[in-house]
């Protein structure tokens, strides 16, 4: 662990990463921390907070850029370690590193640009009747130390120096990361980069710490530490809900931004199926099997009106799934859960198995699955509506467009909703769109939900249970707002006004 | 009750308002509703939602203005009824009506102006390497039907057509109000104005409903109705926390914006006390006793370094309190709680009673109270840190500036923090300001926290327990964001894009 710049080897249980492609344990062992380490990291973060939030914006931007530089300086060692710990391909990890450093640099731009502070000024109206108006100025300030939980499926972009960390540091919040046990070596390398950047700039060491430990023990301790003021989490629904409950039960409840589960429905409208069903089938299976389907935005649900065009689509998609190669999943646990989830769905009396990927002897492999059911069965059994994390998708055959909409209206909240529509589908798409707006954080047409662009307009969020707080996003620059709150300054003397809301000279 | 434009007399318990200045019951009786009425109102709100949120911005703005017009058309009848039900002076109620209609019209401007939609556009980059970028556009959409709980202390501005209702309607959310039993007649009059405005514009009647009922029964039913998507509440800490707990326990948790309790600390710095102690004393007692102290922002706590200047201040303030007239409180319950709260504090061994207002035989009167204690006693007993709703303030004598800051650092979250500082106090004020930023939603200098300006820069909010969600405000135009969430539109065809994010022709 790295607590406020100091190396600490936890005295709790030891954990080694596992190379999921072989099942072998990797050296070295990492020691789990407990109450003492949480206390040290949180005390250091709280101590660092006033100085860190008081830095000029340019300095915080520089920190983010320095972290990006230092991550790049880790070179191939980082990619190799991440590859061994996660089984993800080197090319994918190289891309993910670019996304991670790009995200840090984008937040640096946001910090420098300044509108994140949400400045609003109502000038004094001394002559107003019946009462004069005071000078009132508003800006946003950081909430305080933030706890970030690394996710297993993006060992760089949603982990130690991922989106949550970048947004919190940008906002002016020190960060305490609970690293994911699936990639401790990767986490340590990145944490050294962050700690090094903090030291390079002479910032308070408590600005950043990395802890390892068990979720129920160290994780819940971290969330309930009174110095922690917000939480960023990406992971399972059960894990997210446990953190939300712990945060709500504190004497002072705090916001939790948990990105949890989503089946990411894809609507195939009749015109699109007729015009380019085979092409859609290719794109669908490529998106479904990308990264063994281990994406929050994996297309796990397909809705369409039954008929010859859908049957042709399913034949093409089924053939592509059957031809797909098994790929290594992130951890033995994830591979087991995937296999169990697919087995349970396949055994459901209302489910038909359309295709499975090739069998394999590789350990921890994902054998893709394409399943189908009918709309009545789907809506009447919530077991069919749960996310299976991995390359598994369930096709729901509907009687007509009205039933497609009815199924859409009954869905839980989602990260994404995708529509494939041709020009002739316009009327149906126009009826569907307002339904989808209430269900998802992102609506996309004629594309695939995997691949979440890091930009200003992105929303990676959505109604519960996709996330615990639909009013925000965990990807894109709007994410900084999660760690801010507004403060109004009324008649504060000019010499004391924070520079963001001071009069320009 | 008025449910989606229809008059309904509840079959539950009957309630009559009480004229607090006489203790007499007022006619007519109002019937409490229950499960059926909640169901009807929520079903109508959900049904109205798609049409209401789909209206052009100009139409929603027109509704808000029409409501304001219709409230004004109620004329003296509204003021008279409110005066009888609350005991608040006619002049105050006339001012509050102006604030209420001004607030509605300000939100109309906000809706027309359009930036509330938070539009962000990342244009497509088809030639980007290695991957092209899609066209991604973001806007904010309304959450859905909102439950609003009327507050007793502002029968117009924080009640049926108060800030929460105005912000929710502006955002595009239908509203179901639970009217406060302390002013049912006032609530009915205002609800008729809203219902009339909805009808005038031909909008779906479910856009607005008013219910009466008991908090634990009808209130909790309303919060847990699956169609309700957010809650606005102003009231007690216990009431707010019960609503938060109910909202969190739903299968789909929803945001609750509860504005609860605050003692609104006032810091009197040495230079200010020396320069203008007597003037500050006058202002303080005027703010303390305004409206019988029944403001969320009532200055219930004063912190200063002990010494001759503080003693002179307390003498002047004590004399002003002793000379103050007893005024009628809003309800018998509030008057009883106030008397009990002051009695408990006065009986505390570490508390000295500096002054009480004149005794009176009037029913439900508030006899102002100025009490004092020392900083060590204050910090060691949370009983001294609780809000007493009404014109009661506790002065905490501190040894030195360091102890003032230490007490400040130990305070719970607050709606406001006030500093009285002279030029010579600059250094001390500069040290205090960052502490106060973390404690309060609004910081004001050389003024008084009562009187919450409705503008763009106002924050009427603050860290827990001042509110249940510090990231927002319940007064001012930023309040609209409470009822919105962002949605991203990726490659959505131009013909389907909502007008807010469509290309301008």
From TrEMBL, chains A, B:
Coiled-coil stretches are none
Q: Which Pfam families match?
A: Aldedh
InterPro entries noted in UniProt: Ald_DH/histidinol_DH, Ald_DH_C, Ald_DH_N, Aldehyde_DH_dom, Aldehyde_DH_Superfamily, ALDH_KGSADH
Q: Which domain of life is it from?
A: Bacteria
Q: Which reaction does it catalyse?
A: 2,5-dioxopentanoate + NAD(+) + H2O = 2-oxoglutarate + NADH + 2 H(+); 2,5-dioxopentanoate + NADP(+) + H2O = 2-oxoglutarate + NADPH + 2 H(+)
Q: Which UniProt keywords apply?
A: Oxidoreductase
The record places domain Aldehyde dehydrogenase at: 13-461
MF GO annotations = 2,5-dioxovalerate dehydrogenase (NADP+) activity
User: What EC number(s) are associated with this protein in UniProt?
Assistant: 1.2.1.26
Its protein name is 2,5-dioxovalerate dehydrogenase
What organism is listed for this UniProt entry?
Saccharopolyspora hirsuta
